[in-house]
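Re-run with default settings, no changes from the original entry. Doing this only to confirm the output is reproducible before filing.
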Amino acid sequence: MLSDIEIAQQARMRRISEVAQERLGVAPEHLQPYGHYKAKVSLEYLDSIQSRPDGKLILVSAMSPTPAGEGKTTTTVGLGDALNRLGKKAVICIREPSLGPVFGMKGGAAGGGHAQVVPMEDINLHFTGDFAAIAAANNLLAALIDNHVHHGNSLGIDVRRIAWRRVVDMNDRALRDITVALGGPGNGFPRQDGFDIVVASEVMAIFCLANGLRDLKERLGRIVVAYTADRTPIFARDLHAQGAMTVLLKDALAPNLVQTLENNPAFIHGGPFANIAHGCNSVLATRSALKLADYVVTEAGFGADLGVEKFIDIKCRKSGLRPSAVVLVATLRALKYHGGLEVANVSKENLPALERGLPNLERHIDNIRNVYSLPCVVAINHRSHDTDAELALVTERVAAKGSRAVVARHWAQGGLGAEELGHEVVKLADQPSQMKFVYEERATLWDKMRTIATRVYGASDISADGKVKAEIERLQQAGFGHFPVCVAKTQYSFATDPALRGAPSGHVVNVREVRLSAGAEFIVMICGDVMTMPGLPKVPSAHAIDIDDKGRVVGLF
């Protein structure tokens, strides 16, 4: 059996200019090529097509993630290929992979099997340099802060209250908490600092929510970087940073166009952390795709409790986007894991374990249909060891929830294996629906968090210590109460404890920290042990990644 990278390396790619012109009607003069197979679409051209009607937006999410795997990106790609096979003009929109997971534990994020985007190595590695530009803009701001303090500190920045951290696109636990500016007066004021991974930067979140260069610049200027001793906020615009930061980002802001293994167009742009931020590809890419296609298939980070909620309450609320249908991805392996089995045992038929794990999927269905008020189809991402009895059980239980389960074989067969899923998506998207937000914008920050916890996570309540409560109230009184809430918690459970599988209920969600993202315009509520700088596992993926004597990358997945 060929590996993902071997399948990708055998792909017969077409020049991206041909894909753009023949599939999207975008002429070569509107592209900025990065070699033959990837390009950026000019912002000027995208501005010129905004009066066109929108296609239909299909959102792909998943059950709560497990080490057994679900295949959300693979399903997104397979569905896009299937819709094109059915004669629909379809585009997929996904996030760019971060080097941290690629060389860490998760691996790449370009799909898998015969449902991938290519060139796979480029996409998973440096791609078009967007992440490097975001890191440079982020770290320029950090340098300007320390430089301002060094040269007299006329703004009165309290060095104990500098909130802006540097970033690097790699998992490196040694950089989480560090001391900077050692070496004497010429190097600034020593202080405690740290690094986040690039995808956790507020610059990344802003980048993916901005609707153009002007909006990007204004949002960057609103970043709160520090406070004075009396807690007066210091903004990036106070340091005159937003102009230079926008210069570093101006080329990156144009969406990246590549293709699937079946030569269908795909926008891959932006990659905000699905915990500390909203975990969706850029608004610019999604909006542009909707002007160029009849169907746009996109995905939201992690499971539907985190990903879909943030997609709706942050991305849709800010952009006006509205999904027509949701695809909820599940595997029998993952369901059995939620039923108590360990990964080594999930490939064998086990109906009792499957039965115990199904409440996880059922709660996600309930949330999509009854909380978000969107039509939903369950895509069972087929594996060769799935049995007829297990598939029948899942299909029956999903039907009892008012949805349909479709077995999709896109990993093995590409778009052909997802045609039935494509038919169901088209049918659902043609039905009238009225998406609902989880909470009202006028609700308090505390009530927004409680509503998410009780309505989406199945919790009985939320809690926080006095210091965190006071900070939430301070942000409320400072005029940020209308912002959406962005919950940062484990993706592995509805609760904050990743060990609680299935669909736990009645738990209390504790908010241990709150952060203001004033430029991105949301409030981050950190719950449980979520880190903004991951570490590498004992055996990182980097051990298997290599290059052969012919210059071909091997071991990437």
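The first helix runs from residue 4 to 9. The longest strand covers residues 508-517.
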